[in-house]
Amino acid sequence: MAKHSASLAGTNAPELRGLTHRQFFAGLARGFGGALIFALPMLMTMEMWWLGFYLERFRLALLLIVNIPLLTLLSHHAGFEETFDWHEDLRDALIACGIGILASSAILTVFGIITPAMPADEIIGKIAIQSMPASIGALLGRSQLGGRKVEPEEGTKEETYASELFLMAIGALFLGLNMAPTEEMILISFKMTAWHAALLVLLSILLMHGFVYAVEFKGESTLGPDTPWWSAFLRFTLAGYVISIIVSLYVLWTFGRMDGQAATQILMSAVVLGFPASLGAAAARLIL
Amino acid sequence: MANVKTERKENRSGRKVDRREKQSATPGAIEWAVGAVSAVVVLAMISFLLYQAWSTREGAPSLIVNVDRIRATDGVHHVEFRVENQGDATAAEVLIQGRLRDGDRLIEEREVTFDYVPGGSEGRAALIFTNDPAGYDLELIPSGYREP
Hints:
Chain A has 288 residues and is an all-alpha fold.
């Protein structure tokens, strides 16, 4: 790569175009790789296929609409340009959507989950619900497999904090989406009593705090060495846990797991899904 | 290209050190506000769960079936109903049986199973009869369940 850039200054336009084309296709390939790594657990979950045809269409559409600004923001964090050029980020987000749709369609076709004999509504539903996690994977794959890292934004204090929380939300989605469609999520909540659930809340928060500190020790956090534990606990652990619960609630609602349920049941399912989601949020800086 | 990248990375970490020093001194007001709101939400969650843990007894499911409406489509009759679990415990594999009777004579029998009806929640379903329920006595009863 360095050799190319060294000769770049003296070259003419066609060679430059060739280089960017190659980079572009390498980026696409990385995107497909990321989409598969991220979405395969969901592509191979039967509840996700069923959700594709019975999920309420409004919720499915909302999921896809929410996906666009989410990917745009994520692209902003994953790119290494310092300036916020939302045109480029939006373009990358749309490319990620395209990769997500293509990868999901291809895999579902190979598995025989979608066949030409099915009605369009069913095929589109099955692809659409898979394309959301796949597109997040595509976007992360383009940067991660390319050796870049997702980092919080460099800006004012408030911007950096907001951006840390955003990355936590992505981490929560990362693990939460993998678990949410399975029936085990609600089954576990049925097996637990409210005592168990309260205990699980405490356990989630404790483990999260461990991760928050682990990140701090890695020297990647905005926390200084002289930050008292309760300060990090309040600003990152608890805030991150609430974000995980909100993400869990949204995912459960989208997948129709809350319909007709009592408030206690909804909260307990959210706590169960919040367990993997909160670990994802806390480890976001490590795993993203 | 590679040079540019490392330079930027250095630039980033360099700035990060500055920022860290500044930040550890005074976390912003927004950070405290978010932290405080989060603490309140988490405390509310735990209190709600503990309240539920105290107040709910080791109960059994209590299943009640209500017919919403009867719809005739394509020569068959859909009896749409909802089963409500007014107990605290979750019932799994709830079997609902529907019968049409003419006096003592059984005209038609249908059944449907709910995977789960959690405590305090409801589920909806329909039974399909070929005879018009309007002409007979319609009976919908929960036949059984198992613990999840």
